[in-house]
Amino acid sequence: MKPKNTDEKFMLRCHDLARLGIARTAPNPMVGCVIVLDEKIIGEGYHRKCGEAHAEVNAINSVSNHELLKKSTLYVSLEPCSHYGKTPPCTDLIISKKIPRVVIGCVDSFSEVSGRGIKKLKQAGCDVIVGVLENESRELNKRFFTFNEKKRPYIILKWAQTLDGFIDIIRTDENQIAPTWISNEHSRMLVHKWRSHEDAIMVGTNTAEKDNPSLNVRDWDGKNPLRVVLDRQLRLNEKLNLFNNKIQTIVFTEKDKKSLKNIEYIKIDFSKNIIPQILDYLFQIKVQSIIIEGGEKLIMSFVNQNMWDEARVFVGNKFFNNGVSSPKINANYLSKEVNIFDSKLFVYRNIKN
What's the DSSP call for residue 56? Predict the structure, then answer.
């Protein structure tokens, strides 16, 4: 986007810096910070990894002459913390360096911050500006804000469908676990990149059985997400890739079963709505985001309960003529369309949840 003024220009730089920490800061948010004197950046930093120094600390430490801080402006994409966590409060450092002006992208809704950092800075005499590119700042940490405000993970639905609206062929007894590829290898690489950015990934029983997915990151450099699968009756074959013990995996079931190495069996009540139970458990273990990869029944259960934030739909250059119909969501929610060689990616955002 094109900045309207100086504050927006430097806030955009904060956003660029913050994104450098993607997939490494959780459960903390991604934050970028720049320090400006006479409209020139004299220091910058970002939160690199959970447990390490925050963006403000790294930016301040990058300034060679700290006397310059006394007449500078500090820009930060998220409200500075005011509490002791794994690191000391950033507000205390800003105040101690006598930085006179602080420009903040958005308020931190985390209960231990939530306006307290702003209040503390103002009480110390700082000129504090809040809400510069606020929507963009919140979008940057959509997972973090959803987790803290809605008490559940940020939910991404993902599937691939043919030009005639099918996500799978009709399987036969001879072809029960062979996946039917619809999009191309470039799309698959992008999906693996996405997986490395999210905390968890989930499939239903039929998808696990028929496709035998690994749900890992193979075509991208990054961490594997937590694997989540539904298996009400514990009928899935333990030789499936999901049970190879290489990645932490959660199985939601109605049966009692002792957990194994890297495989945890969680009993829930299938006579009741299972989605709130699943999301509540994931919230309790601090899963901030999850990709729902199928199948159609599982995805539509989230859609029908309006329990989704984003949908990423690949449309491959193929026709099945018959098969399993694709999930249906409100096309009015379309926010982006991208060509990926012979496939297209449609991204939808849920504006009504």
Answer: H
Q: What is the DSSP letter of 156?
A: E
Considering the chain, what percentage of its residues have pLDDT values greater than 70?
96
Structure tokens at 301: 């259960």
pTM: 0.93
How far lies 140's CA from each of 21, 67, 229, in Å?
Answer: 11, 32, 28
Contacts of 332 (CB under 8 A, 6+ apart): none
pLDDT tens digit string along 15-53? 999 999 999 999 999 999 999 999 999 999 999 999 999
- d(CA 49, CA 337) in angstroms, rounded, equals 32
pLDDT digits (tens, 9 = 90+) for 157-200: 999 999 999 999 887 666 555 567 899 999 999 999 999 999 99
Provide the annotated active-site residues: 56
Query: In sequence order, what are the residues at sequence separation of 6 or more whose Cβ sits closer than 8 angstroms to the Cβ of residue 225?
Result: 195, 196, 198, 199, 200, 201, 215, 217, 290, 291
